[in-house]
Design goal:
Blueprint lengths: L6 H12 L6 E8 L2 E8 L15 E6 L14 E2 L5 E7 L4 H10 L12 H9 L5 H10 L5 E7 L5 E5 L5 E5 L2 E5 L11 E4 L4 E5 L4 E4 L4 E3 L4 E2 L15 H7 L1 H9 L2 H13 L3 E5 L2 H17 L4 E4 H4 L11 E6 L5 H12 L3 E6 L5 H5 L2 E4 L12 H17 L3 H20 L1 H9 L6 E6 L2 H17 L2 E6 L16 E6 L5 H13 L3 E6 L8 E4 L5 H21 L18
Parallel strand pairs: 15-16, 15-17, 17-18, 18-19, 20-21, 20-22, 22-23, 23-24
Antiparallel strand pairs: 1-2, 1-3, 4-5, 5-6, 6-7, 7-11, 8-9, 8-10, 10-14, 11-12, 12-13
Helix pairs in contact: 2-3, 3-4, 6-12, 6-13, 7-12, 8-12, 8-15, 12-13, 13-17, 14-17, 15-17
The chain binds 6-O-phosphono-alpha-D-glucopyranose.
The site of 6-O-phosphono-alpha-D-glucopyranose (G6P) has 16 residues, from helix 8.
């Protein structure tokens, strides 16, 4: 909302920036006099234009379906019976079915299958007895689940936002007031932001007012300044964010190599903990596994790892001396937030390694470390993963007071990645040999096992080719049954204690007709294709992921898919 009257276009522009969060349908509502005008579409925003007229107040949403299929009716914003209240929502209203039944009894008409639609109808019902803000507050207070809403009311000049789950950030700019689920949607207009906390409601009008829920007590609020730059959220000379972010990796690693004090301080905390756990989701979990190997190998410290979504079922043994270290690019993943909340109730301490200042996980942590990788926009995580590996390596070395050694290794890894990126055409050529394959297997041992898992994830999530990573030693216990003539197998064979055994596994695959792509410091007669990764101790492990990211990227282009927005996925998953 603001001085400017092209609010609809500004919202559309903002939604494009946020599309990585969900992109199956989208919609915008703007206030026109005392009415709302709404436009909704199914599919990605792409080059869409909107036809809504000018206004100073509006709201928009890009959806990742949870309740109800991908249809125009299910796209947000959702409205009340009189089309006076427009609501956009992230999260899940767990008690929506019972609320919907009651509202239907009272005569409300529903047109979507979503849980969201109960909220505008609840507000409509409460407006019969009280004002806009109180209606939003009282409607919110009866909901179960973790949710965030932005509400526009046709007869009000205020926008109200409220949350107890998914993120919301308010931006105060020269040209108006903004609210978004991610700060990167706002940096075009302002760097001065306020991150709404759970159980807070903000009324954006002449003078923004912050209230605490359920009661509604007024709260003071202060702004934080975000230092991300606009160039960082645009593609520049690159065709896709994924390749741009792959190329940014050496810079990210060099920066982390210089952050000895901040990282060393967290290292001290880890040293003193009794029971240390790394948790994360997706790529962050695979980074956590690598972390456990780094800690064992370099610091001789045992660290447990679990996918964050499983940690809830495995945390009965936590105590007030335990330390949970959450890894998360966005800092918002609900599967990570929930077990942290539970761990907190047991008095355990929380440390976080995230990429987003002010994010939920960042805020709830006792010890906070930022990755400083800059905004990552491609759904498939690349530079944030490499940043996590780099931080974990520094942490592991810091335990032995050898952080300088870690910096040296990282600087060499950055140089090696630069060299690999100069030979990008070789990797493109090798990827062509995979263009008609149905399955790709990756094997590694030790640290490289975690890389095999992450490499397989990269390939499958963007190219939709079935890819699986295995521990080399596990191959003969089942997966080798899948190998037949020309089955591609990527073998990760760095110059470490795993080399001999992983090459034996490669020979086993080769003997069954498999086609081997070897990533190693030296060529071998077993390899059909060879990608050289120079030997730089654990640094070679970090460089090793880059060809795998590039194979995933080029395979996706060969298949003519969009690497930045793979089907069914969203970058930041704030629902369970
Ligand atoms: C989603 C993304 C993955 C990501 C995971 C964890 O599933 O699609 O790419 O690894 O969330 O995200 P986080 O922001 O917590 O690292």
């Amino acid at each position: 909302m603001g001085k400017s009257t092209n609010t609809g276009e500004m919202i559309l522009d903002g939604l494009k920036t946020l599309e990585y969060r969900g992109y199956d349908s989208w919609g915008i509502a703007i206030k026109k006099g005392n009415k709302l005008e709404v436009e909704k579409k199914v599919g990605k925003i792409g080059d869409s234009k909107i036809t809504l007229g000018n206004s100073e107040i509006g709201v928009g949403h890009t959806r990742w379906a949870t309740h109800g299929g991908v249809t125009v009716e299910n796209a947000h914003p959702h409205l009340d019976c009189k089309n006076q209240i427009a609501v956009v929502h992230n999260g899940i209203i767990e008690n929506f079915e019972e609320l919907k039944k009651e509202l239907i009894k009272k005569g409300h008409k529903f047109i979507s299958e979503t849980d969201t639609e109960v909220f505008p109808h609840l507000i409509e019902e409460n407006l019969k007895k009280e004002g806009f803000a109180s209606s939003v507050r009282d409607s919110f207070n009866v909901l179960k689940g973790l949710n965030a809403f932005v509400v526009v009311y046709a007869v009000s000049k205020e926008i109200i936002a409220v949350k107890n789950g998914s993120p919301l950030v308010v931006g105060l700019g020269k040209d108006g007031l903004f609210i978004s689920s991610d700060s990167i949607g706002l940096i075009k207009y302002t760097r001065d932001m306020f991150f709404l906390k759970d159980n807070q409601m903000i009324i954006l009008g002449e003078k923004p007012e912050l209230l605490e829920l359920p009661g509604g007590t007024k709260l003071p609020f202060s702004l934080e300044r975000i230092d991300w730059k606009i160039e960082e959220v645009s593609m520049g000379k690159y065709k896709h964010f994924m390749i741009k972010e792959i190329f940014e990796q050496p810079k990210v690693i060099r920066k982390i190599a210089s952050e000895k004090d901040e990282i060393g301080a967290l290292g001290k905390v880890i040293k003193n903990s009794r029971g240390t756990f790394f948790i994360g989701a997706g790529t962050a979990y695979y980074a956590a596994i690598a972390g456990a190997y780094f800690f064992s190998k370099i610091a001789q410290k045992h660290v447990n790892t679990q996918p964050a979504s499983e940690f809830n079922y495995l945390e009965d043994f936590l105590t007030d001396e335990s330390l949970i270290i959450a890894l998360s690019q966005s800092g918002e993943t609900i599967d990570v937030v929930e077990p942290l909340q539970r761990a907190k109730t047991k008095g355990s301490k929380i440390a976080s390694i995230t990429n987003v200042l002010g994010s939920t996980i960042y805020r709830m942590s006792d010890y906070k470390l930022l990755l400083n990788a800059g905004p990552e926009k491609a759904v498939a995580s690349t530079k944030a993963y490499v940043a996590k590996l780099s931080v974990l390596l520094m942490l592991a070395y810091s335990m032995n007071s050898e952080i300088d050694k870690a910096s040296e290794v990282l600087l060499k890894a950055a140089d090696e990645i630069d060299r690999l990126l100069e030979h990008i055409e070789d990797i493109k050529r090798i990827t062509k040999s995979l263009s008609h394959t149905r399955d790709i297997y990756l094997i590694g041992r030790g640290l490289s096992y975690s890389l095999a898992l992450e490499g397989a994830m990269k390939i499958k999530e963007v190219s939709y080719v079935h890819a699986e990573g295995f521990a080399g030693g596990e191959l003969k216990h089942g997966p080798i049954a899948l190998i037949s003539k020309n089955t591609p197998c990527i073998v990760l064979a760095p110059n470490d204690e795993t080399y001999g055994a992983i090459m034996s596994n490669a020979a086993e695959v080769k003997a069954r007709g498999g086609m081997i792509i070897g990533l190693s410091y030296q060529n071998s007669s077993l390899f059909d294709h060879f990608i050289e990764i120079k030997d730089i101790q654990e640094g070679s492990i970090i460089a090793q992921i880059v060809p795998l990211q590039l194979i995933a990227y080029f395979l996706t282009l060969l298949k003519k898919y969009d690497p930045d927005k793979p089907r069914n996925l969203a970058k930041s998953v704030t629902v369970k």
